[in-house]
Design brief:
mainly alpha, Four Helix Bundle (Hemerythrin (Met), subunit A)
Length: 174
């Protein structure tokens, strides 16, 4: 009984008269499918998503570089350009951004914690030999962030950035 119902259903669906009536709908659906596929391919190849998320990782793999190293280097150049401007406001921004970048590197490497302090405390001395310096410049960063009257010079900023750069290099090599 169920076999005959299934066979009857299949014969109705495959009948020539029903197929002729559905032909315009099939054409419309095929057109929309092709148009959607074309738009998706257009946006995929014209967006930067593939470049940053996939192609960059493949290039890093074949160059034997740690993943994301180019992104870090690009951000570090922006931070260093802030110091070249010669304004105290830019020095402060450079210190804040350097610690933020260092914190992101720690997070990307999988160190647990929600705050900078929690993540740094999880790093072992072997992985980060200048951990004491990092904690010292973190205090300077806090002064920059929370004390609007705190003054920082170009030399102090360069010292802070050098310590963060050394820390980033140490973490990235592990």
């Amino acid at each position: 009984m169920t076999g005959s119902i299934v066979n009857e259903f299949i014969s109705v669906i495959t009948s020539q008269s029903l197929q002729n009536e559905l032909f315009p709908a099939k054409v419309v659906f095929i057109f929309f499918a092709l148009a959607s596929f074309t738009l998706i391919m257009y946006f995929v190849f014209n967006s930067s998503f593939l470049r940053y998320e996939f192609i960059g990782d493949v290039v890093d793999f074949f160059n034997m570089e740690p993943p994301g190293l180019r992104r870090i280097a690009r951000r570090w150049k922006v931070i260093q350009k802030r110091v070249e401007t010669g304004t105290e406001y830019e020095y402060k921004l450079a210190v804040l951004e350097a610690e933020e970048l260092f914190n992101e590197v720690l997070a990307d490497k999988g160190f647990p914690g929600k705050t900078f302090d929690e993540r740094v405390r999880e790093v072992e001395k072997v992985q980060l030999p200048n951990i004491e310096e990092i904690l010292g410049v973190h205090k300077i960063r806090n002064m920059v962030a929370y004390d609007p009257n705190y003054k920082i010079t170009k030399d102090d900023t360069q010292k802070v950035l050098a310590i963060f750069e050394k820390g980033i290099r140490n973490i990235e090599t592990f």
